[in-house]
């Protein structure tokens, strides 16, 4: 008797038994198994604190995300996340094209920056150090570690870093949860994606504030490829939200493996951008033993490769600037880096309050030449909205309001603008 006749006698359709398995993304499994392997990366400069006798919290610079790829402490993140650790940075006053003075601004260093004609005063030059915050017990506990940059690409937004020293917390042994790697060449248009990371809730808050918030999970689809931001290797487009602080976090595909690294979300395109995980093959390649392990863990070389340049994570030289503490302190006091700002008001259409209108605040970042999403809110049934965010007086912000069957409203936010108080907005 054939297998076919047996199945018919049992009333079983072969099409059911032998139907291909359809992969589905499992958010609960990803959170349960891998959230402890996703870290917060905080850039800190103790040299800045020592040079100006500042409070410890004033050594904090910025933050982002990353994830372990091996249990001894090797991590993947974006190159732009740790660029200040390699290239260095300056704190300076400079004047823009409109003759507006930017006081005590932090600027990534590049050769001969100090000779730029727009610069009026240089207070400090140095390098940041990555501090890694590793959560455990579903976010109830955490450890802090110093780390070093091993290698990074100047043509692809990827970097390899490694934990070096335990600073505080219960996990002194330093064995970490690492994430399985997938194949970014095998994902397809329309595939479900999940992003894990630590989007900023306190723009330029204190170091202690930045330690408080825990992991965030967002969902989206593979929406295509973008060759504008990375013309060499391309970036995966997604409708998933990628906020500031998400940069460097893992992007999971339907096989519950990491297929990409969250990079940015722009207001111009209004889509998320993700670097394919396969391109990290060349960032890891200088470390042969690690590369062998990661190949067993799923890392593959990309089928197609554009221009690729990888450099060591060695600190590049910056000018020796004599700290001018009194002048810097005065600049910081006269114009603080950021202030908490409330944005609230009423939105109407045809003289009636408009509920479920979406309000978004976007902040321009020089490093990606685009806007990133800072915070969102929605009007209630009375048409009112209220949100709070940290406002940098030197920064450029947009408020975007959208609602069904309405023309999108876009306005630049200025520190003297009524939009930063109570505002009554009428949509067309």
CATH fold label of the largest domain: Thrombin, subunit H
Structural class: mainly beta
- The low-confidence runs, each spanning 5 or more residues with pLDDT under 50, are 1-21, 332-337, 418-422
Helix content: 10-25%
Number of domains: 2
Overall mean pLDDT score?
82
How many angstroms does the end-to-end distance come to?
A: 73 Å
Secondary structure: number of strands: 24
Shape: globular
Estimate what percentage of residues fall within beta strands.
35-45%
Largest sheet: 6 strands, antiparallel, barrel
CATH class of the largest domain: Mainly Beta
Can you walk through the features of this model?
With 428 residues, the chain is mostly beta strands. The chain has 9 helices and 24 strands. The chain has helices at residues 3-9, 14-17, 27-34, 46-52, 79-86, 207-210, 280-284, 288-296, 325-334, and strands at residues 38-44, 60-70, 74-77, 89-95, 101-108, 119-126, 129-136, 141-153, 159-168, 192-197, 216-226, 235-238, 250-252, 258-265, 272-276, 310-312, 339-349, 352-353, 358-365, 370-378, 384-391, 397-402, 409-413, 422-426. The strands form 5 sheets. Strands 1-2-3-9-8-7 form a 6-stranded antiparallel beta barrel. The termini are far apart. Mean pLDDT is 82; it is low at 1-21, 332-337 and 418-422.
């Amino acid at each position: 008797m054939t297998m076919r006749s047996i199945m018919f006698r049992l009333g079983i359709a072969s099409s059911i038994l032998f139907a291909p398995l359809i992969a589905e993304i499992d958010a609960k499994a990803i959170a349960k198994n891998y959230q402890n392997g996703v870290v917060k990366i905080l850039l800190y400069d103790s040299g800045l604190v020592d040079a100006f006798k500042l409070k410890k919290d004033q050594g904090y610079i910025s933050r982002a995300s990353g994830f372990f790829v091996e249990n001894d402490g090797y991590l993947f993140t974006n190159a732009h996340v740790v660029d200040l650790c390699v290239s260095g940075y300056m704190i300076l006053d400079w004047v823009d094209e409109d003759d507006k003075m930017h006081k005590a601004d932090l600027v990534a260093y590049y050769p001969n920056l100090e000779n730029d004609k727009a610069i009026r005063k240089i207070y400090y030059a140095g390098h940041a150090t990555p501090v890694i915050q590793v959560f455990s017990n579903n976010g109830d506990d955490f450890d802090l570690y110093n780390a070093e940059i091993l290698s990074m690409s100047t043509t692809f937004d990827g970097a390899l870093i490694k934990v070096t020293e335990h600073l505080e917390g219960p996990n002194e042994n330093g064995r970490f949860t690492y994430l399985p790697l997938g194949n970014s060449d095998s994902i397809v248009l329309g595939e479900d994606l999940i992003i894990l990371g630590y989007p900023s809730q306190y723009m330029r808050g204190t170091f202690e504030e930045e330690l408080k918030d825990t992991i965030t999970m967002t969902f989206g689809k593979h929406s295509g490829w973008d060759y504008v931001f990375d013309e060499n290797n391309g970036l995966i487009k997604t409708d998933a939200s990628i906020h500031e602080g998400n940069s460097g976090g893992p992007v999971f595909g339907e096989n519950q493996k990491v297929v990409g690294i969250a990079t940015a979300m722009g207001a111009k395109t209004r889509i998320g951008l993700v670097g394919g995980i396969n391109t990290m093959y060349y960032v890891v390649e200088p470390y042969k033993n690690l590369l062998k392990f990661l190949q067993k863990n799923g890392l593959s070389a990309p089928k197609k490769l554009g221009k690729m340049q990888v450099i060591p994570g060695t600190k590049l030289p910056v000018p020796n600037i004599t700290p001018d503490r009194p002048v810097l302190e005065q600049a910081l006091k006269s114009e603080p880096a950021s202030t908490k700002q409330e944005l609230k008001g009423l939105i109407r259409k045809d003289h009636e309050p408009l509920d479920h209108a979406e309000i978004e605040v976007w902040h321009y970042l020089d490093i990606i030449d685009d806007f990133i999403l800072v915070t969102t809110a929605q009007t209630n049934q009375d048409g009112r909205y209220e949100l709070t965010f940290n406002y940098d007086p030197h920064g450029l912000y947009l408020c975007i309001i959208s609602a069904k069957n309405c023309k999108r409203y876009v306005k630049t936010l200025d520190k003297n603008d009524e939009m930063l108080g109570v505002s009554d907005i009428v949509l067309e």
